[in-house]
Structures are given as C-alpha cells and as structure tokens.
C-alpha cells in the first residue's frame, strides 16, 4: 500500500484579502521552507472576483511564496484534515517583495518600535452572518440564535485552538443570523495572521455543518453591516503596558493619544485600505453602529476610534486591560493592509505628536459641516471612488507604502469596480456576499 503524503497549503492573503496559494507534499516541508513555491507578480492584481486589474508586471517576473513555520497548523480528524501555513512573498534573491501585504505590515510594526520602543498587542473582532437566513424576531443577542449556532461554533472554536488563534468570546450579534467572534490579543503581525486563519476556518468548519458564513461588509443595504473592529494596546520590550496613564484625560498615555491622533488625522486617506469595497460605504453611514466620522469616542460605538471600558478598580490591572478599537474596518480588507495602514498612520501621529479631537458626546449626524469643523471632525469619504482619491493624493500614504504600491492598489480597485458597473446596491451586495 502506498503511504498517503498529506498536502500542505501555503497561502498569501492578498490585496483583496483572499487567501491564494499552492500546496506541496508534506515530505517536502524542509525544502519548501527554504525555497517556497513559485509565485507570479501579477497574481496581486487578481480582484476578489478573479478578474485581473491593470498590472505593471504583465506576464513577467518570478517570486517565491515561502511558508512561515510560526504560522503552520494541522487540523486533525474530521473528513478533511488540513495542513496550512501563511507565506511571505520574496524576490528570487531572497528579500521581501515590496508588494507583499504581510511584509508591509511587518515593516509598519518595526517602524513604531523604532520610533517609540512599543509593540502593538492586537485583537481582531469579526462579525459575520449566515447566508440565506431570514430575520427572526427576538434573535438580536438572543439565546435562541446562540443555541442554533452552538454546535458549529464549538467545532469552529476547537479548530481555532489547533492554530495560533486563542478564542475569546462568541455571541449572537444584533443582525439577522449575525454572529461575532473575538480572539485574545497577540503581538504584532500575528494578530493579522490570526484574522486570516479565523476567516478561512469559518468557511471550512461551518461548511461541514451545512451553514455558510459571509463576512461581507453588508449583505443587505437596508440592514446592519459586518464590521471588523481592531483593538490595540502597546507593550514595551519588557512586556509592561504603555497604553494607560491614570493621570491623563480618559486614561490615555501620551503614546496612545498621539497614535490615535495620527489614525484620525489620516483616516480619510487610509480608508480605501480599511473599507475597500464599494459596499463598504453602505456600512459606514451614521446610526449603523459602525463609523462615519473621524471621531474619537469614549465608549461610543459610533466612533471610528473608541476607547474601550476596563472592568477593574486596580490600576495595574486597568493598565493591562486598557485598549482602544478602530471600528472603520471590514472583511473586504486585507487584514495585513488594514493593520499596516493603521500602524503607519498611528506612528506618524506619535512622531509628530498629533493631538486627537476631544471625544465626542453627541450625535454627529445632527451637526452641520461648520459645527463639525469646529470640533476638528469630518465626515469620512462616502464612497470608494472618493476614498481612493484621498488615498492616491496623500503624500503621507505614499511615504509609508511607496508610490508603486499606491498606484498598484488604485489600479486594483478600479478593476474591481469595473466588475460592478450597472448594478444597484442590492446586486452589488449579493455579488460580495459570495466572495467574503
Ligand atoms: N455591526 C456594527 C459594525 O458594522 C458593529 C456593532 C457593534 O458590535 O457595536 O461595525
Ligand atoms: Mg459587534
């Protein structure tokens, strides 16, 4: 009898946030760890609909997708065991490819460390909905919805525990068949790795129970969206927390305040990376509990950046728990690019000591632009084309990501939008529903 040689899949999460890659026999792991698998530059211009946007590379060039052993996991048992690792895209000479999303995120983490000696401790919070389930009364945060999902949720959590992900909470969210899962925070790019793994295992594991999740930003223009909220705190090299200062307003240390200042100053310019689909902008509207203005909220769930509550009277525990979340992200975004953009903008804020606007305490949708301007607040771009103009015109974004990447990303998104021409909002939502 011939012995089964399991396949290991090495994947990259690309500009579209889609995991693509190749597999190889497990017996070749050591060799592939050095050489990777062959990869094509123009693959980065594959849109989420599999069309190919304008590519500066055409049919030319060769790259290697090299697995990172720290991301490798095996899911045993079940009908389809899985061997998986996330890869970095490298030049044939071995250096990081300048358009590798994971390498960009790694560079962003290094820059904050160089500027402030701080490492981000990060947790992604994901919302998703089960496809084709009609709304049911009494289901918002409800026990019935939880029980409906408990069997697949437990299988899902068990699978996540076999990876680098450590589940935190699982709950029935507000929307129709909407659920939320959070992971424990981890340092640096591992958090984005875990977001990649969390999404791919959702399709894999829930599919085995006969339900199909969609992480798409919004399934129905009339309903709520599926957000990704990214929680941040900071540690120094000894592991001590740097986020909290009990003597400062709202508990923010100077590092936290300036980082948030940078994120909010540049939010309109990085939004095309955080909310990167046309339908993302149906979610980023007032009163959808997402984010519509570049505002700071103290425990306000309609703020782009929200200072989260801590539940402790002990100052040491509070300093460890203290964190803020960026709420303008969705799952059409590459976890690496959204994370990198927030890190670059925040680091710029730390370098330039940018002060954020004061936390808002009222309904900003009721204020006119002049009243908003007085508070240092703007409505965020209301469409992807508008966000792309701010992105491509931003000197700051170009200095962080490089001109080559900015132009590539813009071309990618123009090609993606061309696939939606002539469709109404509902049709667009339906098209994205099956991708994410
Ligand atoms: N569904 C909301 C969003 O699109 C978030 C709701 C909440 O968890 O506060 O971000
Ligand atoms: Mg939620």
Task: Produce a short descriptive summary.
The protein is α+β, with helices and mostly antiparallel strands and 436 residues long. The protein has 2 domains: 7-97, Ubiquitin-like (UB roll) (Roll); 105-433, Glutamine synthetase/guanido kinase, catalytic domain (Creatine Kinase, Chain A, domain 2, 2-Layer Sandwich).
Extract low-pLDDT stretches.
none
The CATH class of the largest domain:
Alpha Beta
Number of domain modules: 2
Q: Could you report the average pLDDT, rounded to the nearest whole number?
A: 94
**Which hetero compounds are present in the coordinates?**
glutamic acid, magnesium ion
Run of helices and strands? EEHEEEEHEHEEEHEEHHEEHEHHHHHH
What's the CATH architecture name of the largest domain?
Answer: 2-Layer Sandwich
Q: What count of helical segments does DSSP give? A: 13
Rg from Cα: 21 Å
- End-to-end separation: 41 Å
How would you describe the shape? globular
Helix percent band: 25-40%
CATH T-level topology of the largest domain = Creatine Kinase, Chain A, domain 2
CATH superfamily of the largest domain: Glutamine synthetase/guanido kinase, catalytic domain
Strand segment tally: 15
Query: What structural category arises from helix and sheet content?
Result: alpha+beta
Question: Would you give an account of this structure?
Answer:
The chain has 436 residues and is an alpha+beta fold. It folds into 2 domains: 7-97, Ubiquitin-like (UB roll), CATH 3.10.20; 105-433, Glutamine synthetase/guanido kinase, catalytic domain (Creatine Kinase, Chain A, domain 2). Helix content is 36%, strand content 19%. The chain has 13 helices and 15 strands. Strands 7, 8, 9, 10, 11, 12, 13, 14 and 15 form a 9-stranded mixed beta sheet that branches. Strands 1, 2, 3, 4, 5 and 6 form a 6-stranded mixed beta sheet that branches. Helix 3 packs across helix 4. The longest helix is centred in the middle third of the chain and has 21 residues, at 254-274. The structure holds glutamic acid and magnesium ion. Glutamic acid binds at residues 127, 224-225, 227, 283, 289-290, 301, 327.
